[in-house]
# Entry
Amino acid sequence: MKIERIAIIGAGAWGTALATVVWRSGRDVTLWAFESETVEAINNGHENTVFLPGVPLGEGLRASSDLGLAADVHAVLLATPAQHLRATAQALAPVLPPRTPTVICAKGIESESGLLMSEVAGEALPGARLAVLSGPTFAAEVAREQPAAVTLACADAEIGKALVAALGNRNFRPYLSEDVTACEIGGAVKNVLAIASGIVIGREMGENARAALVTRGLAEMVRLGVAKGAEAVSMMGLCGFGDLLLTCTSAQSRNMSLGIQLSKGEALKDILDSRNTVAEGVFTAAPVVALARCMGVEMPICEAVDRVLNHGDSIDGAIAGLLDRPFASETGSP
# Structure
């Protein structure tokens, strides 16, 4: 199988960065954007001035607002925000040929249904051959050709290898996995934990506290992943530990920076209203906690973030609740 023509659905920062990767890898790529001003900016000014300003794009990279373009491609990358993936996939379904390799590049859990992104896409695009792309990446760095490595998870090894060959280049290195669930749980949970990391840093609790939070957060991520059917070892890779490390240690992270702002007393609504980008952890916290409870998995850090975001708990109360938990075995009870 050779993949030469690729459509990327979603022209946010990540979708645009992925389009630059595909173009530099020598493939024919079209970037679909909802906003007409984004299409015009990319095609005429070779820059996504709305979502990825200051990063020049190749002149051969073209944008379109016509979803019909997906009818004649070898693969599709879905790079819309997680909570919009279902609607986008449903709109795509009438034009996408059956069994088209479809790569999910969104990180989250659908808030209304509690489904993983592959489960959502499976319902909206029956017959599509699904893969998931996830890992420690900031869009601007990828677009500027700074080295990055990601996990590409696909249950079909042949399709996975073809996608790796189509997307990979010297500075963008996909590592193949068959563990789709690990890839999705890692990408979803790390955003919630990054909000907690931002709160730790914003409250000047110290690097010891952040290291503890990241480590115990990883334990929560692994518990949920294993309960959902993932292999624990898969979550030690790029899509789990790697993504968690990046997102919890840099203020470039939308989720960590949101946690910092919350810790300074800013209202969540005001923070969200001031941004044109999506902090997925805000919308993922509640479904992560709901999924964990359904599966009998304890996730005290994620639960604390959910209480702060969605149930009116104070940050001080959430911190106290975590620090007052009983001592426990590191490898046993959370």
The mean pLDDT is 96. The first strand starts at residue 5 and ends at 9.
